[in-house]
Structures are given as structure tokens and as C-alpha cells.
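#help-structures
NK: newbie question, is this the right format to request a structure? protein is Magnesium transporter protein 1
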Amino acid sequence: VTSVNWCRKATSQERSIQVDCSSSPVRFRLARLVRMKLLLKIAVLTAISLCLFQLANSQSSKNARGQGQQSLSEKVQQLLDMNTKRPVLRFNGNKFRDFVKSAPRNYSIIVMFTAMAPARQCVICRHAHDEYTIVANSYRYSQTYSNKLFFAMVDFDEGSDVFQMLRLNTAPVFIHFPPKGKPKPADTMDIQRVGVSAEVIGKWIQERTDIQIRIFRPPNYSATVAILMLSLFVGGFLYLRRNNLDFLYNKQMWALIAVVFCFAMVSGQMWNHIRSPPFVHKSQNGGIAYIHGSSQGQLVIETYIVMFLNAMIVLGMVLLTEAGWQNDHRKSKVTAIVGLFLVVVFFSLILSIFRSKAQGYPYSFLFK
């Protein structure tokens, strides 16, 4: 009985202890403390992760900026090294993409797209290349030279993929690639209107880059030699005919010289001397154009054509005038018909040329 009672007392005491533990707030405080420690650990780990991610991101951006600056400096240095060897850089497809199309780039670059091979039969390309080289040399050895402007050239046989990339189907073409952004329509030089002389190219570059280039042409002594040779020839001829100088009083000779001088001035020879236009150029359909399509420009061969047409018109007027002073009626009639034919046909031709250059001119005679 005593043992049974003792067991009952012990059991009742244990139950009371269990009841007391379950009803006390200690258990809840322990659980709350564990949860708080767990949340604190999660917060610390999250903060450390965010800090590490931000540090890695900033470091990678710094490395990227450093690599970009290094790449830009390397590109500029390579361009300067190539520019010391030649003023006009020759680019193929890979170099064009590396130095012109790819970023970063803080410099302007003028690119001439041409076809210099004789098989391409680009007559104007050689003349345009010579004028372009004069501009590049003038800038290379001027005080305004810097690493903000470079001159390059892409030949069709060396970079046909570049022509396809830019959708170019003619040559020569001058395009300015600015430091930022894509070229605008004004960044393509309108050689059909202004020509390809060095002075015109320099003016166009100044408009696009605000860099003024003073053109220095290499000395050309051909005109001086020609004048000296002509002076020696005339002086020698007058010396040999010193005893008979009656021909100096020949009115027809002086009239012919005056008319030839007028032909030269009216046809545009002085304009050619000032602007240095190309001899011929390619038309839009790929053929050779002998007449400039704009009233603001002309070609060298065009001046000779106009000179010939004016000469034929004057010859026709002279024949018409002489026909009235002849005594032979039959000869006078033939002379008048030939003179009238010359005036009508060649005046119609020169009127047709003027009509093609002055867009909108409504009048024509025999030819349109």
C-alpha cells in the first residue's frame, strides 16, 4: 500500500510539473528566440549577398569602361601610326568595320569609295583621287591637324562587301562618318552638283566637321612652260618675218583670234580653271556622262562640246551673211542653204543641252 501510494504521489507530481511546463511562457520565448535568430541570419546573409553582387557589378562595369577606353586609345593610336605613313588610309572590309562602324569612336572620318582598277573604267575616279589626296595632304601638314579627323579610301576590288553594306552602286562617293550616330543625307557629298575639286571637298568637310582646311596644291609648272614656249615661238616667228610684218594688219586674222577667245570664255573655260571640274563622270545608270545634269556645274568635255556648237552656229551665220554678197546666184544659194542648216541644227542641239540642264525649261526646237 505504501509503495502504491508513493507511486501515485510521484505520478501526480510529474503531471503537475508537466502541466506547469506546458503552461509557462518559457517554451514560447525559446521558440521566438530561435525564430529571431533565424531571421537575423537570413537578413545578414541577404545583406552580404547584395553587397557582394553590387561590388561585383561595379567592378565589372569599371573593367568594361577601362577596356573600352583602352580599345579607343588603341584604335586612335593605330590610325595615327598609319596616318604618318600615308595621308589617305586604305581600308578593306575588316578595317572599315573596325575603325568606322564599330564603337567606341570619338573622331570623324571621311571615306572615299572608289574603283581605281582600269577594268572598272572609272574615268573620274583617278581625278577625284588626286583631288582627295591634295585635301588629305593639306590637312596632314597643317596646324589644324589632330586625331579628330582622318581620311580613308575603300576600293571596290578590296572592299566590295562594304559597297553592298552601304548599298552603293556608283563611284566615286564621299561620305562623312561622324563620331556619334549614323551619317545623315548631308554627310554624303553631292559631286553631281559641286564637282570633286579639292577646294569644294575642303569646304564640304568644314561644313560637316567645323574643321577648316587650307588647300595647298603642289606647284604645276606646265602652264609656265607652255607660256614660255609660246612666247619663244611668237618671238622667233616675228624675228624671221621682221622685214614683212604686213600680216599684223590682217583684219580677218585678228577677227578669228577674237572669235576663238569669245568661244573659250562663253563655253566656260574660266569656270574650269577656277573650279577644276572632272573631265567626265559616271551617270546614275552606270554609263559615262558628258553633260552635267545640273545648271550649277559642268564638265571639262562639256565646255568643248559647247564651244564646238557655238562655232558651228557662228559659221552658219557667216555663211548666211556671205551668201548675200556673192555674184554667182547658184553658189550663193548653196552657201545660204548650208549656213541655214548649220544654224538650225546646232542651235537646236545647244538649246536641247540647255533644256536638259535647266530643269523645267519648256522650249525646244528640233531636239528634246
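mod (FA): yep, format's fine, and the C-alpha cells are attached above. The chain is about 60% helix and 5% strand.
NK: thank you!
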